[in-house]
Amino acid sequence: MNIASVDLNLLVAFDAIVKERNVTSAAVRLGVSQPAMSNALARLRIIFNDPLFVRTSQGMQPTPYAEQLIEPVSRACELITSALQINSVFDPATTTKTFSFYMTEIGEILLLPKLLKHIQVAAPNACVRVRRIPEQGAKEAMANGEIDLAVGLFPYLKAGFYQQRLYTDKFACIVRQGHPTVHDSLTPQQYVDTPHVIVMSANTGHDAAIEKILLTEHLRRKIVMTSQNFLVLPMIIEQTDAIATIPFRMAQKIASYSTGIKILESPIPFPNVDIKQHWHERFHYDPANKWMRDLMVTLFRE
């Protein structure tokens, strides 16, 4: 088939029907009338000599042939959209955009206050929304624009995604002031003998990284409590003889408002972690996305 014989607007209509699975909704998505969208579908069926979509109780379902077209057509539409946005202008002073993030609890605690403070001045009508990191579907949410940036440890965001390092962090231990056995330093033996509190916050990846190293060193911690959030740590550590191994910057934040807690160097050589921002290739040239990425670099990159 010669591409010169195909109206590219028809491919946009095809992509809209794929996303909406409804002709009327696809028409609304593109800002055209329902008859115009129906006419576009009829022309597509003639061009491809295939029904392409069949009406079912679950909406307009693609035929096997249409299934083969979905990815390349969608990608072509995204590339054209990105190209047309290269010279677009984004004005933070007037935007009303909601910037959506995937961010771990640590990221929210360490990054959001400074980020929001800057946005309130530079983009006073903008809004920031942080979404829970799902077990599945993160890639799709970023590809369709529901999420602008993912900040933290996201090793599975590779093909189709850009990434940029913001800073590197290390692991440290926190204990209470006046701990009966742990004073100004920790030995490896003390580390495994002392009760541990761990945080298994959704999709942070921190404790999994710690446990992996301990296994290679043939060490086993004495875990007495597992929590789902970091905010409980100051109260637990201050009032017990337990210790916790957490990112150093988080330890600094906790120690800054909990005077009964001190930070110790970890006796186990845990690897450093790179905290990165990730975005889908579809939005690489999007002016608003680029503005936010640049802002994150300005505020947090080392």
Give the SSE map.
Layout: H1 8-20, H2 23-30, H3 34-48, E1 53-56, E2 59-62, H4 64-84, E3 98-103, H5 105-122, E4 127-131, H6 138-143, E5 149-152, E6 161-169, E7 171-176, H7 188-193, E8 195-199, H8 206-216, E9 222-227, H9 233-239, E10 244-247, H10 248-257, E11 261-265, E12 273-280, H11 287-300
Parallel strand pairs: 3-4, 3-5, 8-9
Antiparallel strand pairs: 1-2, 5-12, 6-12, 7-10, 7-11
Helix pairs in contact: 1-2, 1-3, 1-4, 2-3
Feature tags:
43% helix, D-Maltodextrin-Binding Protein, domain 2, elongated, 3 domains, 12 strands, alpha/beta, Arc Repressor Mutant, subunit A
Q: Can you offer a commentary on this structure?
A:
α8 (206-216) links the parallel β8 (195-199) and β9 (222-227). This protein has 3 domains: 3-84, Arc Repressor Mutant, subunit A (Orthogonal Bundle), CATH 1.10.10.10; 98-162 and 277-300, D-Maltodextrin-Binding Protein, domain 2 (3-Layer(aba) Sandwich); 171-271, Periplasmic binding protein-like II (D-Maltodextrin-Binding Protein, domain 2), CATH 3.40.190. The strands form 4 sheets. A 5-stranded mixed beta sheet has the order 4-3-5-12-6. The radius of gyration is 25 Å and the shape is elongated. The longest helix has 21 residues, at 64-84. The termini are far apart. 27% of the residues are buried. The model has no long low-confidence stretch (mean pLDDT 89). α1 (8-20) packs across α2 (23-30), α1 (8-20) packs across α4 and α2 (23-30) crosses α3 (34-48). It is an alpha/beta fold and 302 residues long. It has 11 helices and 12 strands.
Question: Nutshell version of this structure?
Answer:
The protein is elongated, with a radius of gyration of 25 Å.
